[in-house]
Structures are given as C-alpha cells and as structure tokens.
Q: What sequence folds into this?
C-alpha cells in the first residue's frame, strides 16, 4: 500500500490548512467561549467545496474521494475541531443519501447540500440503551400512505441548523433496533421540535440537542433504503464516520504537539530551552509518533472506503487506538507546557475539551474491540 | 481584454528549513516546495484582471526538475495553461540567468499584454526579475505595483515607494512587479484543485531557447548560506553600584557597535 498522497490530495490538504489559517484560527477561541454556530464560516466552507467533497459532480460535488476527505478533516481540526465536526455530521448525512437514496431523493437534497444551502444532520442516538428501545424511542407507524413518527432522538449534532435530518426510527417497538428504518425528515416538517441546545464540554459551536417528533407525517418517499434496513445503514454510515472522527482526533493531536514543540523551543529553564531536555523530548516524540501512526492507520481505512473494499475492522482499529491515546496526547502536551499549558490563555485546554468531545460524543460508547477480536479469533 | 503571462518561482517552504545548531548550515532535506509567496500575488492579480475584464492568463516558470511539482498548484489558482522550463542550471541561477531564460521563453511564446512577476522571490528576494525581463525584451517596466487596472491597451498602476505613492499609466505590452499588499491570494477550492489536472501544461526545452552558454552563467555566485541564531550571552554585571553596572553594560554594547 502506498501511503504517499497524490498531488491533488496534497493540494486539497494545503487548501484546508490555508482555509483553517484564514477562517478558523481567528475565531476558534471565541467559538469555544460563546458556542455560537459559525454561519459565515459554513458559507465559506461551501464556497470552497468542502461541504460537497464526497458527492459526485452530477449533483455539484467535488468527488474528491475519502482519502482527501480525511486530509481535510484533519487539517480543519488543527484549527477548529468544532467546525470539522459540523462538516463531518453534514457529510455523513449527505453520504447516506448518496449511498441509499433514490434518484429523486438525491436530486431533491444533494445539490443544495453540496452548495451548503442545506445542512445535514444525522439522528441515530436515543436516551435508551440502543435506538428503538425505551420509553422515548422514536417509532414509525405505518399509515395507509406513508408513516407517522413519534418519539425522540438524542445528541443530534447540527441540531437546529440542519435543513434535513437522516432519522432512524423503529417500525415495531417489539422488535426495537431490529426494525430500525431510516427516513429523510425536513427540519420544517410539522411536529419536528428541536430541544434546548445542550451545553457541552467541547466542540462548542457545533450545536447538539434532542429532537422531538410529535405526529410527524412522512410520505412514502421519505423512506431511505429498505423498511427495517436502518441498522445496516447506520452501521456502515457510523463506521465511515468513525474514520473521519479519527482524522478529527489526529488533527487536534497535531495542533497540540506543534504548539507544545514551539513552546518548548522558546521556554528556557536551567539555561537552555526545555526542548533540549530528555524528559520533554520523550513526551513530544511519543505524541508525534502517536499522531503519525494514527494518520497512517486512518489513511489505510480511508483508502479501503474509497476503493469500496471492506474497511470496518480497520476503522474499528483506528477508533480503538485513538480512544486510548487521544486524551493521553493532550495530557502529555500539557505536561510539556507545565502550568502555562493548563492555563486558558493557551490553546491546550480547548484542544483537551475538543478531543474529549470527539471521543465521547462523536464516537459514542460502542465497542470497536468486539469487531476487531471477532476478525482474529 | 488583456492577455497576461505570470512568471513564478517554485521555492522551498522556509518554514520547513531547519538550521543546524553545530554549524548554522541549512537542512532542507524535509522541506516541501511552494509557489513563491509574492508570485502568488502576481498570479492572483492576473486572475482577478481576467475575471473582471476578460482575456486570458498563462503562467511560466523556470526551475530544476522539481518545478514539475508546481504545475497543478499554479493551474488551480487561475491560469489556463502553464509553460515550464526544467533544467539543472536553475539550481545556481542568479537573477541574471533567471531573467535570461524567462525572457527567451517569452520571446518564443509570442506577445503578451501584461507580464507579471512578484516583487521578489521568497528565497533570494533579489527583486530583479521583472526589471531584467523588461530590459531584455525592450519593454516598459512598472515595479512595486500596489494597485492595477487595465483600460484598453493602457495599464494604470499605483506604485508604492518608500515615501510616496506614484500613479502611472503605460501602454502595453508591459512588465509589472506586484507587491504583496495588492491582493490576498485565493485559497483554491476543491473543484479548482481537481480541475487543474484537466488544464494543459507544456515543457519548453532550454535547448530550444537559443541561449548562449554565458547566458546561463550566474554573475553572482552564492558561496554559502547560513542561518543565524539568537543566543543569550548570559553576562551578569555584579558591581555594587547600579551606575557601575550601567556603565559596564554601555561599554559592552559600544564594543559591539550597538550604541
């Protein structure tokens, strides 16, 4: 396998870094403090084709491929993981429509999503132990024509800003997740109510909220994929998303180690820069190594996705690796900067919160090791 | 509608160059290439002119074999076609050699209304390429342009000088060097990056430029390049009187010609 990026992939990564420097770096601190949705930045993302990166050109997308996508997410995350998370959640909704939508659904939604005129959201989680189970479970009841949705989805990212949600509901509460079915629900459909924005620890600016569905009437054409085929859709879509989330973690880790290295070069102790001390060198070297290895792992998984090959085990591996090491990267880089690194005047606390958000919210408590173990034993 | 040609240089990204502490020599083994910063302004200005008034933009570059890495980057920024001269002579080329090669290539390509260059290159910053090309081609030259517009065959430019601004107008064809403040180079969108692969590029062989051996002989020879490091001298004056300490500090600074 060749891990060298093509010229186009390198230039796309450079565009994302330049975009991050110009548009995200100046707002990252304010975004973290105020948590307001960055509308102008999202418009700029669309202008540079980042919101239609994976979509084919016949719907106005850039068709740049999944390797380019993870490059972009990593590079955006170096400046603002919250903005990268907005892009990720939009993209996974667009990806789902592209993969499982009918020709009419693609025509209806994807051109506007590629242009950024319509933001996407992905509503899978519920307050119960698994989607389709529990008192608040979202239930789709079959009518003579179409369905009626009642219930609640939890922790929906881009909530309140998205114009269309990919929503998973059970068609049979007795079967729970086994009868999970995907629907496309417009944000302005009667009965869709976005709850209060959840105050989160990190990734502030990417809105998170519950969405309540009260007698939401959907036509048959709102069905995404097959009836009771939602579990397979969500499994694949979330596996794809987990690779992008790994890129988010690597971007945050890279930003942290670059900041810590710059700090260590200018911080003088015992008459010389602390970057020359072995203890500091070890911390920096370990984080840089973790980032490098994770980057290779996620490029591997991304290439498998791009080539249409099985990728789920590799995606689970990179997810497992980064859930273990993501927070450690930030602890180690904070150690390099000592008391200053702990200060809110430095970016590390924000990066710490963002990496927690990426690992806890974007990559919820499933069990990637189960899939990995099953592949070898 | 102006026909523009932008000359650019493919340089090493200075952020990737390390200074070796033992002898202050430069380690560029892991440095990536980039289009020289000021040349990006020249490309952007030509692209903006053509987007506003119509016309066409081509690009031209001269460098070592690595210059081929620049083509898609250049094409993603607006030019419709890029011409490139790749030759080992570029490794040690000074401003004279660079201008000789570029001017010969321009003669071969035919007439352009505007030939734009950056104010200077990111690496050597000699600020001579535009003036030398103009002299070699017998064209007027406008340097340090901070504002540019085209009306028919007339080019209007504002030159920013040390203590004043100068507005000039000149009939094309003309060679222009632009300042970095003239614009903010675009961030190529993903479609522009991917579209660059579909645009044409053409190699111009150095052998086809009818240059004499002396045209490729640098007149200024670079003997070495060394970085410099800010280092503390760790001198502490411990006289009992503050006045004595100040006097010693002053004498020390004077001995180094600093006061």
A:
């Amino acid at each position: 396998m060749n891990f060298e990026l093509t010229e186009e992939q390198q230039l796309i990564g450079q565009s994302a870094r330049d975009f991050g420097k110009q548009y995200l770096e100046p707002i990252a601190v304010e975004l973290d403090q105020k948590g307001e949705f960055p509308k102008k930045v999202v418009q700029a993302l669309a202008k540079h084709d980042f919101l239609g990166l994976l979509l084919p050109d016949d719907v106005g997308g850039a068709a740049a491929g999944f390797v380019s996508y993870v490059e972009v997410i990593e590079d955006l995350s170096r400046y603002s993981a919250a903005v990268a998370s907005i892009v990720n959640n939009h993209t996974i909704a667009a990806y789902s429509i592209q993969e499982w939508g009918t020709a009419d659904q693609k025509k209806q939604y994807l051109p506007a999503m590629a242009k950024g005129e319509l933001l996407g959201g992905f509503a899978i989680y519920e307050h119960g132990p698994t989607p389709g189970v529990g008192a608040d479970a979202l239930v789709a009841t079959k009518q003579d024509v179409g369905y009626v949705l009642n219930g609640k989805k939890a922790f929906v990212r881009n909530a309140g800003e998205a114009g269309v949600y990919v929503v998973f509901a059970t068609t049979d509460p007795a079967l729970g997740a086994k009868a999970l079915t995907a629907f496309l629900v417009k944000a302005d459909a009667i009965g869709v109510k976005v709850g209060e924005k959840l105050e989160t620890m990190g990734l502030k600016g990417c809105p998170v909220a519950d969405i309540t569905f009260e007698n939401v009437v959907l036509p048959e054409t709102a069905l995404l994929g097959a009836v009771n085929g939602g579990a397979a859709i969500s499994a694949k879509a979330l596996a794809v998303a987990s690779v992008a989330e790994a890129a988010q973690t690597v971007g945050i880790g890279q930003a942290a180690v670059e900041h810590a290295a710059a700090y260590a070069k200018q911080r003088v102790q015992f008459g010389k820069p602390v970057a020359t001390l072995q203890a500091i060198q070890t911390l920096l070297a370990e984080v840089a190594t973790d980032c490098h290895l994770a980057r290779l792992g996620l490029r591997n998984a991304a290439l498998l996705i791009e080539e249409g090959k099985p990728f789920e085990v590799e995606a689970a591996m990179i997810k497992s690796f980064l859930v273990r090491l993501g927070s450690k990267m930030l602890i180690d880089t904070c150690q390099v900067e000592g008391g200053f690194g702990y200060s809110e005047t430095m970016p590390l606390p924000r990066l710490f919160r963002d990496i927690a958000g990426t690992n806890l919210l974007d990559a919820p408590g499933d069990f990637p090791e189960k899939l990995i173990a099953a592949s070898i034993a | 509608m102006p026909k523009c040609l932008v000359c650019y240089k493919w340089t090493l990204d200075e952020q990737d160059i390390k200074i070796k502490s033992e002898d202050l020599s430069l380690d560029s083994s892991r440095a990536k290439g980039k289009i020289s910063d000021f040349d990006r302004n020249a490309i952007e200005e030509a692209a903006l002119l053509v987007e506003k008034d119509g016309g066409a933009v081509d690009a031209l570059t001269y460098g070592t074999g690595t210059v081929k890495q620049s083509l898609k980057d250049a094409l993603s920024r607006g030019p419709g076609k890029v011409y490139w001269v790749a030759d080992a002579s570029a490794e040690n080329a000074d401003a004279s050699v660079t201008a000789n090669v570029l001017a010969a290539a321009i003669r071969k390509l035919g007439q352009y209304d505007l030939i734009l260059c950056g104010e200077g290159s990111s690496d050597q910053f000699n600020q001579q390429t535009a003036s030398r090309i103009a002299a070699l081609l017998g064209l007027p030259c406008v340097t340090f342009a901070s504002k540019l517009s085209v009306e028919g065959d007339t080019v209007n430019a504002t030159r920013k000088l040390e203590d004043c601004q100068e507005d000039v107008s000149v009939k094309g064809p003309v060679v222009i060097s632009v300042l970095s403040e003239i614009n903010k180079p675009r961030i190529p969108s993903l479609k522009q990056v991917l579209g660059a692969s579909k645009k044409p590029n053409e190699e111009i062989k150095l052998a086809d430029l009818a240059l004499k051996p002396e045209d490729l002989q640098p007149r200024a020879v670079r003997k070495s390049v060394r970085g410099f490091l800010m280092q503390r001298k760790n001198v502490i004056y411990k006289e009992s009187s503050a006045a004595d300490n100040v006097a010693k500090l002053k004498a020390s600074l004077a001995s180094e010609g600093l006061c």
About this structure: The interface with chain B takes residues 7-8, 11-12, 14-15, 18-19, 22, 47-50, 53, 62-64, 68, 268, 271 of chain A (CB under 8 Å). The CA atoms of residues 263 and 337 of chain A lie 7 Å apart. The mean pLDDT of chain A is 94. The beta strands of chain A are 120-123, 139-142, 147-157, 164-170, 180-186, 192-194, 208-218, 223-224, 268-269, 272-273.
